[in-house]
Amino acid sequence: MRKATSIAAVSAVLLTTILSGCSSDGASEAKDSNPGAPKPVKLSLWTFQELHKKYYEKTAELWNKSNPNQPIELTIDTYPNAEMHNKLLIALQSGVGAPDISDININYFQNFLKGDIQLVELNNIIEPEKDKFIQSRFDIYSKNGKYYGIDFHVGATVVYYNKELLDKAGVNADTIKTWNDYIEAGKKVLVATGKPMTSFEVTGQRPFWPMIIQRGSDYLDKKGDVTLDNEINIKTLQAMKDMIDKDKVAVPMPGGNTGAEEFFTFMNKGGAASLIMPMWYMSRFLEYMPDLKGKILVRPMPVWENGNVRSAGMGGTGTAVTKQSKNQDAATKFLAYAKLTKESNVRIWQELKFDPIRWDVWNNPELQKPDPYFSNEVIFNVLLGMKDEIKSPNMSELSSASQDLVNSNVMFKSLKDQSQTPEQALKAAAAELRKQKK
């Protein structure tokens, strides 16, 4: 009897052990199988762009595979653009509720550099390899020599030429070096095809903004003072108006801007022989203009006069770490992994079709592949030839207001309904900005 009792007792212990090992959450099993596994660091991230969210999710997976001893558990929330920035600003000002990491649109970033800055300084991860990056893309997220944000892309402005239309006019895109060359080529295109050389936004600011940036001007100077109505800007906007009225080589953009469905249809049907937009606009060609496959050439911007640069870095998202983060070291390391490494910059091109800020990957085999859509050319060779000519705009607390005025008033009134001359439109907008500065 004693033996039977002993066997029964052992069986009961074994059964209890087996059942406890099959708990519903598997926690005991996981703990027993790897009792020394480090606990993941929980990080939260806010963004306003679903594509960015997908990129970060993949990056977190890759981080955990590459760093098994420093795992992270990344939670990502996506909000509408304006709502997210308002929510973030309130959280940082109140001292509660901010995420560890956040995307911040370039148009809003200066709002977060006022007073007691609640973003973590990133010099320690940026400076070691700063010479491998386009410097201007760090400067726009800096203050007093300290960097607070890291971008996805350069946003280098280029000209997208429709080679089919240029060929009909006997125009070689590589001979277009100045804006005068561009206008003369446009006249040939108009005679041969009946199509304009380009179109200008009238409810947006392109290509006016990059055109003045390349001439060393801007809406605001480095101190944040208003320069919107200076002589260079007036001359540039007047030249754009003359391209429409006098030279007949440009037209107001159908739909008003480059994001309008009417414009996609217009370009897809060969409505204009070229478009001046940043590199990130390549994805719009691929998605919305399938009929242009194989016809588009990518080239530098023409210049106005000697000494001008051939591009301007436009748009952007500065990703930052907040001081409210309880895991600032882990958050900063993850941000560096996501945006500063060679591997991440290659992925930014592969997955987002953005021109990465790390120029030394532009020679990477993945970025040196001929692109069938863009005339089977190697697009990044164009950027390599002008990597030191990509200037970014000055950003200050009036940046958003200045862009709003150009978008809503200046371009429409001077180029579309022509209720004001370029000079009148710019001076009126500049006066409004100066009132806001007071």
UniProtKB/TrEMBL annotation:
Coiled coil: none annotated. Keywords: Cell membrane, Lipoprotein, Membrane, Palmitate, Signal. InterPro entries: Bact_solute-bd_prot1, SBP. It comes from the Bacteria. Residues 413-423 have a biased composition (Polar residues). The keyword Heme does not apply. Residues 413-438 are annotated as: Disordered. This is Sugar ABC transporter substrate-binding protein. It comes from Paenibacillus radicis.
